[in-house]
Amino acid sequence: MFDEYGYSGASVSKIMSRAGITPGALYFHFSGKQALAHTVMVEQGNGLEAPPGDDGLQRLIDINLYLAGELQTNSLLRAGVRLAVEQGEFGAPDDTPYQYWVAQFAEQLLAAQEKGELLADVDVHELAWTLVSSYSGTQLLSQISTGRSDLYQRLVALWRYLLPGIATPAARSQLSFSNQWDHSAT
Question: Which key words are in the record (predicted)?
């Protein structure tokens, strides 16, 4: 519901009808639509399984591309992402979902730094924040422009432009962009 209609367009009655639940069931778990929306937003990453592999730059790229695929197929993730953007409509700003991804990206960047994959002047935490911001903007513009059908290609382009400024030439020569998560043709 939130994915399709956003916070304002998803009425409680529509939510209950789609979920096949009674008001009692909804209000047993949530105090109202605002609490439900906040939970969906904050827990958007729950249940996602990051691609396997050694921590580092390749795994970070794989996680980004995996998330692109999930945004094309996972309605709960799409709803959480949409609500994160629209959260001014239903309460005080909460950057929890963004900080979650900053921490996940920083973990991979720290591993990349330890492996010598990053240029010496890269600030891992600043880069993690920049990557989450860039990813968020890219997916939003892709959603508005093409319904995210070009998200995989846009993220590959983002990485191709960013990598020369953050990764060593040796690391860059070993990186690849797997299309296994590109669901734009399906």
Answer: DNA-binding, Transcription, Transcription regulation
Measured between alpha carbons, how far is 83 from 42 in angstroms, rounded to an integer?
9
User: Counting beta carbons within 10 angstroms of the beta carbon of residue 76, is it exposed (0 to 12), middle (13 to 18) or buried (19 or more)?
Assistant: middle
Helix, strand, coil percentages, rounded to 5, for the chain = 70, 0, 30
Q: Quickly tell me which residue has 């998803």 as its tokens.
A: 10
- Cβ neighbours of residue 10 under 8 Å, at least 6 residues apart? 1, 2, 4, 33
Residue 92 DSSP label:
S
In three-state secondary structure terms, 118 is strand
Q: Which tokens hold the place of 163? A: 């990598």
Residue-wise pLDDT for 91-116, tens only, equals: 768 888 889 999 999 999 999 999 99
3-state class (DSSP) for residue 137: helix
Contact 86, 140 (CB under 8 A): no
Specify the pTM.
0.85
| CB-based contact 44:62 (threshold 8 Å) | no
Would you kindly state where each structural domain of the chain is located, as residue ranges?
A: 1-173
pLDDT greater than 60 at residue 38: yes
**Does the domain formed by 1-173 have CATH 1.10.357.10?**
yes
CB count in 10 Å sphere of residue 55: 16
